[in-house]
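Working notes for the structural subgroup meeting. M.R. asked for a predicted model of this chain before we commit to crystallization trials. I am recording the input and output together here so anyone reviewing the notebook later can reproduce the run.

Input as submitted:
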Amino acid sequence: MLLEPNTMRNVRDQYKTEKERFDEKYFDMGCYMRTKEEYYNLVLENRSLATDPQVTKCPCPNPLCDWHSKCKECVALHRYHNDHVPVCLQPIISDKITALAATVEMLTVKKEPTPIEYRHYVKERDKQAEGK
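Returned structure, recorded in token form:
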């Protein structure tokens, strides 16, 4: 008698150790330790990506920001003030938090951005300061 493929999988799964099930679960989630060779290849890929202007261009949607296209300074200031993350990183984190919140039947709400008028006000004040 031949067993259906799914039945064979169920039989095989019964004999897995707890560690094998744990390792498989976290491997599927992307939570596994890379080999040295995988890590080396990732570093080579990242070096190549870091030279690509399409990858390194500033994705900030606010060209009036004083730190637009100055990503290193922007991230450093956000780390220093520790009140929120740069706008360019928010979608990445928001997607993960939204998915996590959904697992406990919660919702996430996006905070209102700083009004564009505030950016214009900074520019006006800077011009006034230059005139003095």
